[in-house]
Design goal:
alpha+beta, Hypothetical protein af1432, Beta Polymerase, domain 2, Ubiquitin-like (UB roll), flat
């Protein structure tokens, strides 16, 4: 993203005065970052310009875009906040300050996913930074997205560290802001660096299955298209392919790709809610609905504000297809979330907004109010419940380490045997014990974020039936079931052989 390309993009969105102000910020940042290079060898200024372009694409106000251009100047050059305020105003200075606080808070945290007690001061800074103005979060998400897109230039250990922080902290943040497209991009890029082998295996599995189902799905699409046109309904229909990381997580839960019916979903976008429900009734008239898979997220939105009608149907040929039906407004919010729900160009943020007096916040984003209240308490030196904040915000996955430093993604509630089976079923079968962070732990120990696991083995060890109580993932359960079946068959053969020997001796 060059200066001219960014300004050309901005001209499509902002007025002439705003574009001139953006040009001034670009020239200012270019001069201050002069001589600095990224790990790729490119001029450093290309990074903040790309961050600004991402913010324009998300529909943010010009102040946020300018802050995106300037977001690294205070941290990486000799620019002061006072200088930014005098040139670009208090609002932009406030945003740059918030982004700088987040960066400094992060650098002082050993593990953002677990918030160790000694990181409390840094967490306080983080809360204050993101709580006082939610646009700070959005700038940081744009910054992190571009950093992940260029992560190949970093050393492998840095790649894993940044990817882990991204999938533990920034992807869940995007999810809580209902920025679905951003969450998927961050998860996909993180998954690729954290678990490259599993990422490639899942990708190959997905593509092989997509080839088989695409032709059948095209037939369904044509049938639905014809029927909705016959009903004289105004609509737009496209397909949504499940992300590779989402497929990986679902395989972890259900164990078999044949049980995953939403690998490809058909999405129908309409003008209003009444048409959405009408389309739902038409689909149920055409095909047999699976009643336990009908979800009305319009009447009862998800916690992050996501709204859509979901239904899964079975065609006369036995094909199972998921449909998502929503209005254009719901679709825009599902894709861009908070960035779509605030119209910064028309409603500039006020001091009242920064203090948490936000009448305009949707009810489903009430957690932002809680974040702002926590930031206010932290700013006054009062106590706040960091555990509650963490549980409210972050996802239901944990990341554990092998003794060599390899990272493995498991669901919360997983046990050491789940980790062992993830590595190799033969290793798990010979497990005699586990060292977690250098300390012996029982088989029923529930793994935590950041645990380093060493599997102790014994050649004479065998899988046991009571292990069924200490495995949580479908993959581990299935491998254990196969092993126990083999052990049972071998035992039967041995027992049968001994019995035959006794019979022979009696004769």
């Amino acid at each position: 993203m060059t200066r001219d390309e960014l300004l050309e993009l901005a001209m499509k969105v902002y007025d002439e005065t705003e574009v001139l102000e953006l040009a001034l910020a670009i020239d200012f940042a270019t001069k201050r970052h002069e001589g600095q290079k990224r790990m790729s060898g490119e001029k450093y200024i290309l990074h903040p310009l790309t961050v600004a372009a991402i913010l324009i694409e998300w529909g943010m106000d010009v102040d946020t875009v300018i802050a995106g251009v300037l977001h690294d100047t205070v941290e990486d050059t000799d620019v002061t906040l006072q200088e930014i305020e005098s040139l670009f105003g208090r609002d932009i200075s406030f945003l740059v300050d918030g982004v700088t606080k987040v960066s400094r808070a992060r650098s002082g945290m050993r593990d953002l996913g677990s918030y160790l007690p000694e990181t409390k001061d840094n967490l306080t800074k983080l809360l204050i930074a993101v709580g006082e103005d939610v646009r700070v979060i959005i700038i940081k998400l744009a910054d992190r997205l571009h950093n992940m897109q260029t992560l190949q230039y970093m050393p492998p250990d840095k790649q894993r560290k940044i990817a882990r922080e991204t999938i533990e902290v920034f992807a869940p943040l995007a999810d809580r802001l209902n920025m679905g497209r951003v969450r998927v991009q961050l998860e996909e890029l993180s998954f690729k660096y954290l678990m490259p082998k599993v990422f490639n295996e899942t990708k190959v599995l997905m593509h092989s299955r997509l080839k088989k189902s695409q032709r059948k799905l095209d037939k369904v699409r044509r049938e639905v298209n014809a029927r909705l046109n016959a009903e004289k309904l105004v609509f737009q229909m496209d397909g949504r392919v499940k992300s590779i990381y989402s497929l990986f997580k679902k395989l972890d839960r259900v164990g078999d790709i044949d049980k995953i019916y939403d690998l490809i979903a058909l999405r129908i976008i309409v003008d209003d809610i009444s048409t959405a429900y009408l389309v739902l009734s038409v689909l149920h008239d055409m095909y047999s609905p699976l009643f336990d898979r009908i979800k009305d997220y319009v009447a009862k939105p998800k916690m992050n504000g996501y709204q859509s009608l979901h239904t899964t149907v079975q065609t006369p040929t036995g094909q199972i297809v998921e449909f998502q039906i929503r209005t254009r407004e719901m679709h825009e919010y599902a894709e861009r979330g908070l960035a779509a729900s605030f119209h910064y160009n028309e409603n500039k943020l006020t001091d009242a907004y920064r203090k948490g007096e936000i009448a305009a916040l949707p009810a489903d984003l009430a957690w932002i109010r809680e974040l702002q209240e926590a930031a206010a308490r932290a700013g006054e030196g009062k106590e706040f419940d960091s555990a509650k904040f963490r549980m409210t915000l972050f996802a239901d996955r944990i990341f554990v380490n092998s003794p060599k430093g390899d990272i493995y993604d498991l669901p919360k509630g997983a046990f050491p045997l789940d980790y062992a089976y993830r590595i190799h079923s033969d290793l798990a079968a010979r497990a005699s014990g586990f060292k977690i962070n250098g300390v012996m732990r029982p088989f029923d120990y529930q793994l935590q974020h950041g645990d380093t696991i060493e599997v102790l083995t014994n050649k004479s060890a065998r899988p046991k039936p009571d292990w069924r109580e200490v495995v949580a993932t479908p993959h581990a359960r299935e491998k254990l079931r196969q092993q126990l079946a083999r052990e049972g068959g071998m035992l039967a053969q041995i027992t049968g052989g001994v019995s035959s020997l006794f019979q022979h001796r009696k004769k």
